[in-house]
Amino acid sequence: MEQVTLGFLVLSKKHENGYATEIAKRSSQFNIQCVRFEPTSINPSTLMIDGEKFDHHSQIWKRDLFPIPSFIYDRCFYHQKQLAQKSKPIVDWLKKYPQTTFLGFGLPDKWKIYTSLQSNSVISSYLPYTELIQNPSQILHQLKEASSCLLKPVNGSRGIGIVAVSYLGQSITITYHRGKIKKTKDFHTLKAFTEWCEKLIQQQTYLLQPLLPLLDKQRYPFDIRMFFQKDQEGKWDLVGKGVRKGYQGSFLSNLNSGGETHSYEDWSSALTSRQKILLEDELQTIAEHLPSSLEKKCNRLFEIGVDIGYANDGSVWILDMNSKPGRKTVTKTNPNSSERIFQAPLAYCNFLQKQASLKGVEINE
């Protein structure tokens, strides 16, 4: 099989340097040449890229000029508005470029994911009730019904922008994070809170969900991260599970919001045997149905991080899905999974190349 080129697409070459390097070190075993580049480094007139190529002899990245690679592993995160405005249109154009194939196309926003999965009777039972917020009256109605709710940005990640709202007595309290710092604000009139809600939903689109009781016995928020990747045959594989635990008084367990990683085995050892059997059965059902269901509804995917909530009553909830997941929760708690994770993009790249050869056409969708 002829050598193919796999491009590691990032907004900054410093981003995930260690991860990209570990993948590139193994690429010769798969007869793959690794390059990395930023979307803005493509010359629009020549379609040549001023990027870096991994040199197998010196085991380092070297600056080089090369054409658009035949396969692309997209690891662009659009947290900074300025970078997103410049880079996202180029990435969208690349996804339609007929000579290249993306390992995965990513997921749409959270509302589109929610509505598309509603038709799957197995998966929909694990999804918290969700509304698209169009006016503050929806939030006020939920507070009157349940005294609390969760506001979640439709395009958010890493816990950024999520707000917990509670209605106690005569005041409404909102709780949110600025990085690892938890902040609160009280509203003593419905008018003041309504005005705040209006400003919030004008800034970006939000979803409304119940504030689920996802705290352990010590009242630490936690969730279970399931990490999936496709294998060398293009089949979904559950690479590992880990637990993320936030701090007391918080409602988020994301690492970005001050959470810490724990081994799933250690955490689950505190469950009764009945609790563990029931939980494992639910997680197995999710693992069997969710990745393939997501892919059918959206587009080709290569990896998914799924965050699972385990409530006090034993109910299991799918809290979030991410097509560009971090790996820390799994690699820190399952060190043996690292090698598999570094090889997976290369093995899947070869699978896509074989599929293309068999069809005799480009498989770019």
Notable traits:
D-amino Acid Aminotransferase, Chain A, domain 1; YheC/D; YheC/YheD family protein; 17 strands; Rossmann fold; 6-stranded mixed β-sheet
Please provide a brief summary of the model.
With 365 residues, the protein is α+β, with helices and mostly antiparallel strands.
Explain what the structure shows.
It contains 10 helices and 17 strands. By secondary structure, it is of the alpha+beta class. The protein has 3 domains: 4-102 and 348-359, Rossmann fold (3-Layer(aba) Sandwich), CATH 3.40.50; 110-126 and 215-333, ATP-grasp fold, B domain (D-amino Acid Aminotransferase, Chain A, domain 1, 2-Layer Sandwich); 131-209, no CATH class. The strands form 3 sheets. A 6-stranded mixed beta sheet has the order 4-3-2-1-5-6, covered by helices on one side. Strands 7-12-8-9-10-11 form a 6-stranded antiparallel beta sheet, with helices on one face. A hairpin with a 2-residue loop joins strand 10 (171-178) and strand 11 (181-187). Helix 5 packs across helix 6. The longest helix has 25 residues, at 273-297. The two termini are 23 Å apart. The model has no long low-confidence stretch (mean pLDDT 89). Pfam families: ATPgrasp_YheCD. This is YheC/YheD family protein. It comes from Metabacillus rhizolycopersici. InterPro entries: YheC/D (IPR026838).
| CATH topology category name of the largest domain | D-amino Acid Aminotransferase, Chain A, domain 1
Work out the number of β strands: 17
**Can you write the helix and strand succession as a string?**
EHEEEEHEHHEHEEEEHEEEEHHEEHH
The Rg value, from CA coordinates, equals 22 Å
Q: Biggest sheet, open or closed, and with what strands and sense?
A: 6 strands, mixed
CATH class of the largest domain: Alpha Beta
What is the tally of helical segments? 10
Number of domains: 3
CATH homologous superfamily caption of the largest domain: ATP-grasp fold, B domain
